[in-house]
Amino acid sequence: MNITRRRLxxxxxxxxxxxxxxxxxxxxxxxxGSGAEGNVARKDIRIAVVTHGQASDPFWSxxxxxxxxxxxxxGVEVNYSAPETFDMVKMSQLIDAAVASKPxxxxxxxxxxxxxxxxxxxxxxxxxxxxxxxxxVDDYKELGALTHVGQTEFIAGEGAGExxxxxxxxxxxxxxxxxxxxxxxxxxxxxxKGLGGQVEVVAVPLNNPTxxxxxxxxxxxxxxxxxxxxxxxxxxxxxxxxxxxxxxxxQNITLATFDLSxxxxxxxxxxxxxxxxxxxxxxxxxxxxxxxTNYIQYGVIPSDVVxxxxxxxTQDNAEQVIxxxxxxxR
Length: 330
Hints:
This protein has eleven helices and twelve strands. The protein has two domains: 3-151 and 281-305, Response regulator (Rossmann fold, 3-Layer(aba) Sandwich); 153-278, Rossmann fold. By secondary structure, the chain is of the alpha/beta class.
């Protein structure tokens, strides 16, 4: 861990500990706050969260759990919303509705900065403090957000490519379940650089695992030299694993994925999948609520990106993560 990341983590943990201690001492803070709203009791704070991922998705359900737990720990009101599918027009409308409700803070994912810019600018014009999460690391400052909680997607993809290259992979598929999501496109680009070999991007539907499996099976059949696959999330990893088993080439094609789910962890534990890139999405939901609460009350917040990944879950540590995944934390 480099010095900058270590300092950010120390700051993040310190803020969480301080705020949790305040909750245990009675919830409402005494004394003069210096945040945008001055001295505000936590019970009066309302934060809006808008993401591009549905709470029913195995990844985003963990983000939502982090949001809910932070709201409970901080003693604030939080309203979470997301479009039913990956839809930037609908997401813009949800941000507009959130801003119109005049929250004290806004936490928002930014999979497409150009598509969401106007809506986020309305929050800036209204004086609503913003923290971006999950996606938007390259755009959060330009969009006027105070900080970003997440991982650098290109670097994470590069790290995944390097690990698969160490496994002997030089011809791979990158399974993308949300083409147009800049964060996922960055993962594929980083993967290709890290692998240093041939990478074909396969676009699959997010909400149709049967069709996704069929598309992956077709790509496997068309590429006899294929020896690796990287999925960009559990909704791509699960049909990829099924396609791999159906193809009969599971022994000579190494599969890895981004992000965790119970089925992904079981596959890693059994040796059917090499690893998962873990960005600790629980923290991506939890920390923005903590940071915004702290900012609204006291005017203090991390001044740079708070990195939650990448980390790697392999067969060596999968079992210890499984119990936390069942609880909706990993």
